[in-house]
């Protein structure tokens, strides 16, 4: 519930305050009760009551005592941190470039992970069977009590209907029209959620900004992730703007003079000129008239190899040109939004030549109108790690916890 636009009951206010405190402990481990109170605007007494409940529930632990800060008259403060043994979450990354499953704890530590079969099943029930088998294997390996597994998050590239969890569009055609979080919940008896990878990645970057003591992603952010295709979404004050639209649409913006044949069959789409799909076709020497490649034919290991060779002159030149073009088009896409920052993630963010090309294109485009480009933040968070943070966000920080008591208000 957004307390800024709705009336709040005592229970809603309690849950809101509890989530504020826990978010701060997760995002900035080592904070004291006094520091948390000052940061989020609650009294020391309220934060003490909330942390007591969290400690009793096994979600938070106390650390060492440290000297108090200025104005605290020498009082020693006890550091707080999330208890990794207090809760666990399942993450499922279902994208063309990353198909893995993991178990992560409340402290953000990945306890175990498993790759899904390299050959993607054509039948949806078989895919669900593979994911369920992988999750059960990880739970058996880690021996985490089932009651401590609070939720399961699935991320895919495309569009998701927020109310139903139905995947309206996905680069993995086997998912389209399906509700993987619902089906996995039925099989595993673990609450589930599904989200687009763009929104997932944006939330993960907001967590990182909070942890690093940054600006908490204030204002508007343009979120760009580039793999074979590219997705673009928007965040405001660290939260995704969930429109239900297909984040991949920007990849089909036509590029003047573009000749590459896109996965959609058209010529000159942005993803065919400036994303992994087009880069790999040029590196392989395919002509613009070569038959298009379908999503199901794309191989993640080929893209990873190209990123690993990004320093080689021929590869670097191709990636730099692609990044330059994307930078120019991002100026067009972001001109109305006027974002404070552009977040860049996905496999291609690991190629320095591609990133440098984007910065060059952005700078040149902004120079035409005498403005400075927004800073480009390059993420080191991969899709699976982003999905892990989504699970923590959804099942600890957005939903009421059963441990909440009246004292937390």
Automatic annotation (TrEMBL):
InterPro entries: ATPase_NBD, ROK, WH-like_DNA-bd_sf, WH_DNA-bd_sf. SUPFAM superfamilies: Actin-like ATPase domain, Winged helix' DNA-binding domain. Gene3D superfamilies: 3.30.420.40, Winged helix-like DNA-binding domain superfamily/Winged helix DNA-binding domain. It comes from the Bacteria. PANTHER family: GLUCOKINASE, ROK (REPRESSOR, ORF, KINASE) FAMILY. This is ROK family transcriptional regulator. The lineage of its organism: Bacteria, Pseudomonadati, Pseudomonadota, Alphaproteobacteria, Acetobacterales.
């Amino acid at each position: 519930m957004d307390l800024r636009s709705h009336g709040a009951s005592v229970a809603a206010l309690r849950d809101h305050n509890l989530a504020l405190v826990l978010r701060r402990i997760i995002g900035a481990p080592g904070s004291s009760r006094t520091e948390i109170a000052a940061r989020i605007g609650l009294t020391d007494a309220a934060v003490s009551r909330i942390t007591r409940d969290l400690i009793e529930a096994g979600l938070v632990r106390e650390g060492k005592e440290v000297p108090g800060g200025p104005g605290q008259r020498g009082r020693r403060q006890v550091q707080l941190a999330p208890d990794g043994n207090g809760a666990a979450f399942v993450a499922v990354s279902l994208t063309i470039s990353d198909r893995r499953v993991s178990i992560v704890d409340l402290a953000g530590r990945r306890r175990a992970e498993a790759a899904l079969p390299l050959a993607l099943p054509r039948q949806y029930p078989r895919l669900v069977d593979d994911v369920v088998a992988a999750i059960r294997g990880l739970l058996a390996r880690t021996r985490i009590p089932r009651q401590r597994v609070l939720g399961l998050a699935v991320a895919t590239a495309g569009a998701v209907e927020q109310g139903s969890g139905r995947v309206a569009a996905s680069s993995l055609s086997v998912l389209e029209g399906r509700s993987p979080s619902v089906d996995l919940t039925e099989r595993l008896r673990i609450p589930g959620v599904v989200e687009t990878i763009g929104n997932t990645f944006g939330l993960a970057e907001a967590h990182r900004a909070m942890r690093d003591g940054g600006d908490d992603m204030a204002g508007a952010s343009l979120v760009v992730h580039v793999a074979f295709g590219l997705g673009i979404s928007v965040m405001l004050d660290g939260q995704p703007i969930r429109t239900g639209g297909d984040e991949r649409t920007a990849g089909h913006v036509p590029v003047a003079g573009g000749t590459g044949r896109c996965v959609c069959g058209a010529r000159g789409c942005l993803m065919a000129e400036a994303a992994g799909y087009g880069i790999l076709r040029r590196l392989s020497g395919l002509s613009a008239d070569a038959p298009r490649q379908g999503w199901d034919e794309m191989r993640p290991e080929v893209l990873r190899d190209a990123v690993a060779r990004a320093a080689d002159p021929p590869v670097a030149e191709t990636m730099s040109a692609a990044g330059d073009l994307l930078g120019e088009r991002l100026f067009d896409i972001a001109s109305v939004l006027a974002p404070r920052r552009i977040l860049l993630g996905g496999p291609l963010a690991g190629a320095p030549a591609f990133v440098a090309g984007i910065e060059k294109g952005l700078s040149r485009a902004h120079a035409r109108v005498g403005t400075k480009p927004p800073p480009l933040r390059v993420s080191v968070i991969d899709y699976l790690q982003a999905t892990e943070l989504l699970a923590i966000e959804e099942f600890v920080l957005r939903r009421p916890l059963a441990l909440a008591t009246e004292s937390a208000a």
